[in-house]
Design goal:
The structure holds 2 protein chains of 2 kinds. Chain A is an alpha/beta fold. Chain A has one domain: Rossmann fold (3-Layer(aba) Sandwich). Helices cover about 35% and strands about 25% of the residues of chain A. In chain A, the strands form 2 sheets. Chain A has a 6-stranded mixed β-sheet, with helices on both faces. In chain A, strands 2-1-4-5 form a 4-stranded antiparallel β-sheet, with helices on one face. In chain A, a hairpin with a 2-residue loop joins strand 9 and strand 10. The relative contact order of chain A is 0.18. By secondary structure, chain B is an all-alpha fold. Chain B folds into 2 domains: about 45 residues; about 230 residues, MetI-like fold. Chain B is built from 12 helices and 2 strands; from the N terminus they run ααββαααααααααα. Chain B has a two-stranded antiparallel sheet. Chain B starts with a helix and ends in a 6-residue tail after the last helix. The relative contact order of chain B is 0.14. The chains are: A alpha/beta, B mainly alpha. Chains A and B meet through helix 3, helix 4 and helix 7 of A and helix 7 and helix 8 of B.
């Protein structure tokens, strides 16, 4: 099912080098851990949303977090870029190590962390600004000094949206369809050249065709980025992810290569969930 | 039978409420009719050119002079001064309340701020006259007379802070949380989210809040009568005595003006102009908030 524009990996790669010429951007082999979650427990008041979860996310892979509603998968995802900081009473124990730094250490600046970890939300949430400014926004506030027009084009191409919007970059983004808005949100996140892209049920508000386009996109993005994807949709997890983690009641029940987890789940609860007996 | 009674009661309540609603409409209509009717003789006697372009206001002297400009100027001076005080403070306070303040602090601060709106304006007037002018203004600009526009403008500004702050806060909170999250996820600081997402997103609401506050500032009477003086002066210098339209009305109606005289018709003419201005500002505010309300989805 290829309804994408031409893949633009080389262009995005060039932009990456331009943005951060430091050694950090040197390509590294897949299989290396880029996000390490260690004994993570997250509480809202007395309620433990995530219980003692340890999970490694590997570079240039798509890792899917699945599980029934309320299992803590979104909370876990939002812990990775510290978006839970904005939730009152949210308490985090354990460690998450990103790029070799423990992100909940007092010395770690969450604003700086989020420059390296992009996020796409459940409902498309473009700014009520022009398409162009949606993409340039993050780069601009972070002091991007390069050619902004080129960056915007690269990101829109990378998100498979360029051909549809190249003649109306100055138009307000809210006129786009839901699927286009979500791809715009992906382009917007890419403009910061993140290492990791967190996606919180990015297709749940979209129709099947728009969903298929996003899934193709995730598949392509893996060549340059690492994707962590929360999804309700097990078929989606099976289609796009390399590894899948199954969470239940805040606990990590099983994490495995996706094809293994869906064909030979070890834990009976995983089996019950993926065969649709609950959830 | 019982049901019949209930229906009757239902209808009765509806009619009673309709009457209450009509009463307020009728009052407004009555005020407009009185204003217009009572000022007709004035406009018969005084040419519009003199009224709106004349530079001297001395309606009670012989010969009377009916140039409204000094009063308009006084009202303008007070209003602009009040906005200079209230807009930065009110909007910043609202941004703080909606974007930075922890919930508990907000629950305390917002009611306290709204108490400012409940202080009688005569108190503000005396505060300006007996504290601000001698202790602040006279220290900064020693030549300032005891009645001056600056002190009145400052207290009117303080009076309209709650209006601006409260309505701006509402506008800020109407900006969806998802847009803030989008900003934070793009590595924005709290300040950047407040200034580049929330403030522009709520701009129409903030402008509407400011315009409503302008309406209040123009209509404010007691504080400016006490603090700014009763000397109509065509000046833009805040360190002089000025008289506003409202202060003129208050001054003259306190004296023994007989109904039907030119002086009383003159009062109504000024009142009519005042009414037209505040109505206009309110209409613009409503139009603005509807026309430019940001649609987020």
């Amino acid at each position: 099912m290829v309804i994408m524009d031409q893949p633009q990996g080389s262009l995005a790669g060039a932009a990456k080098a331009e943005m951060r010429p430091s050694p950090v951007s040197a390509p590294e082999p897949a299989g290396e851990t880029i996000v390490r979650i260690e004994n993570l427990t997250i509480r809202y008041g007395d309620f433990s949303a995530v219980k003692n979860v340890s999970l490694d996310v590997y570079r240039n892979q798509a890792t899917a977090l699945i599980g029934p509603s309320g299992c803590g998968k979104s909370t876990l995802l939002r812990a990775i870029n510290r978006m839970n900081d904005f939730v009152p009473n949210c308490q985090v124990d354990g460690r998450i190590v990103v790029r070799g730094r423990s992100i909940y250490d007092p010395g770690c600046d969450p604003v700086d962390l989020r420059r390296h970890i992009g996020m796409v939300f459940q409902k498309p949430n473009p700014f009520p600004k022009s398409i162009y400014r949606n993409v340039s926004w993050g780069a601009k506030i972070n002091g991007y000094r390069g050619d902004m027009d080129a960056l915007v084009e690269q990101c829109l191409r990378r998100a498979g949206l360029w051909e549809e919007v190249k003649d109306k970059l100055k138009q307000v983004a809210l006129n786009l369809s839901g699927g286009q808005q979500q791809r715009l949100c992906i382009a917007r996140a890419l403009a910061l050249q993140p290492d990791v892209l967190l996606m919180d049920e990015p297709c749940s508000a979209l129709d099947p065709i728009a969903t298929a386009r996003i899934e193709d996109l995730i598949d392509q993005l893996k060549t340059d980025y690492t994707v962590v994807l929360v999804t309700h949709n097990m078929q989606q997890a099976a289609r796009v992810s390399d590894r899948t983690a199954f969470l239940y009641m805040g606990e990590l029940i099983e994490v495995e290569d996706t094809h293994v987890l869906f064909t030979h789940p070890r834990h009976p609860r995983t089996q019950a969930y993926i065969t649709g007996r609950f959830g | 039978m019982r049901r019949h009674l209930r229906n009757l009661l239902e209808r009765g309540i509806g009619v009673a409420m309709l009457i209450c609603a009509l009463l307020s409409v009728a009052t407004t209509a009555g005020i407009i009719l009185t204003l217009v009717g009572q000022s007709v003789p004035f406009f018969r006697a005084v040419p519009l050119g003199e009224f709106f372009a004349g530079r001297k206001w001395a309606p009670l002297f012989e010969p009377p002079r009916y140039g409204l400009l000094p009063l308009i100027c006084g009202t303008f001076l007070i209003t602009v001064g009040a906005l200079l005080v209230a807009v930065p403070i009110g909007v910043s306070a609202a941004l703080f309340l909606s974007e930075c303040a922890p919930r508990r602090l907000r629950d305390v601060l917002k009611p306290v701020l709204e108490i400012l709106a409940g202080v009688p304006s005569v108190v503000y007037g005396f505060f300006a006259l007996t504290f601000l002018t001698p202790n602040v203004i006279a220290k900064l600009v020693p030549s300032t007379p005891i009645f001056n526009a600056a002190s009145a403008a400052i207290v009117v500004g303080i009076m309209i802070i709650p209006t601006i702050c409260s309505l701006s806060d509402d506008a800020f909170r109407a900006v969806p949380r998802s847009l803030r999250e989008a900003g934070f996820a793009l590595s924005a600081t709290r300040f950047e989210v407040a200034g580049r997402i929330v403030l522009p997103g709520a701009a129409s609401g903030v402008v509407a809040a400011i315009l409503l506050a302008v309406g209040r500032a123009i209509g404010e009477t007691m504080a400016v009568t006490i603090a700014a003086g009763i000397k109509p002066t065509l000046t833009l210098n805040p360190f002089e005595s000025v008289q506003t339209m409202t202060a003129f009305i208050a001054e003259v109606s306190e004296g023994d003006v007989e109904a039907g005289t030119m002086a009383s018709h003159c009062l109504f003419a000024v009142g009519l102009v005042l009414f037209a201005i505040t109505l206009g500002v309110n209409l613009v505010a409503r139009w603005f908030s509807r026309r430019f309300r940001e649609v987020y989805e």
